[in-house]
Amino acid sequence: MNSSALRGAFLLYDALMRTLRVRVVGQVFSKERPSIFFFWHRNLLPLPHVFRNTPIRVMVSPSRDGRLIGSLVELKGLGVIWSSQHKSPLRGVISVVRALREGWNVAITPDGPKGPARCFKVGTLELARRSGARIVFVGVGFSAAYRLNTWDSLRVPMPLSSVAVVVEEAYPESPEEAARLLDDLDARAFNYLEI
Q1: Per-residue pLDDT of the chain (195 residues; tens, 9 = 90+)
Q2: Can you give the residue range of the structural domain that contains 8?
Q3: DSSP structure string for the chain
Q4: How many domains does the chain have?
């Protein structure tokens, strides 16, 4: 994507995000240690805006779509960890561990970059458990959103709508338990919407 198209995409994204009423519930950061945040890929869109200019690095695929997401993430003042699960997954793991040791928080979509949707990958949970980082799950609720015809049914909040973000520290024993927790947090987020 050329720079003028990227700038246009960012301006459009930023204009939409500024119309949202956002509520965040739960303790996002800890002073004691960095956190790894998990959220479903379908909920990605509002989160760089909600957590703009905070010490978070987001794990992003170097694919064409990933490069666009990475650019938006960086323009919102967040860091990016470029990682390909096919070409060099170990490089991504090393980058996450390095970021945590440097005091950064890390955000990961455990069903990304290509799915299957809402299926928590074993490696991401194991990485979080072994890292010693605080593990935080993020649920997102939308009062009104478009669902795109993508592998993850990406949700795009409608202008002037509400978004609720619920964060909860948890240490599940299995990927299945982690997936249930994320689904539960998405459902609970609806209780906090300003409609």
Answers
A1: 677 877 888 999 999 999 999 999 999 988 889 999 999 999 999 999 999 999 999 999 888 888 888 999 999 999 999 987 666 667 888 899 999 999 999 999 999 888 899 999 988 898 898 899 999 999 999 999 999 999 999 999 999 999 999 999 999 999 999 999 999 999 999 999 976
A2: 3-192
A3: --HHHHHHHHHHHHHHHHT-EEEEES----SSS-EEEE--GGGTTTHHHHTTTSSEEEEE--SHHHHHHHHHHHHTT-EEEE--TTT-HHHHHHHHHHHHHTT-EEEE-TTTTT--TT---HHHHHHHHHHT-EEEEEEEEESSEEE-SSTT--EEEPTT-EEEEEEEE---SSHHHHHHHHHHHHHHHGGG---
A4: 1
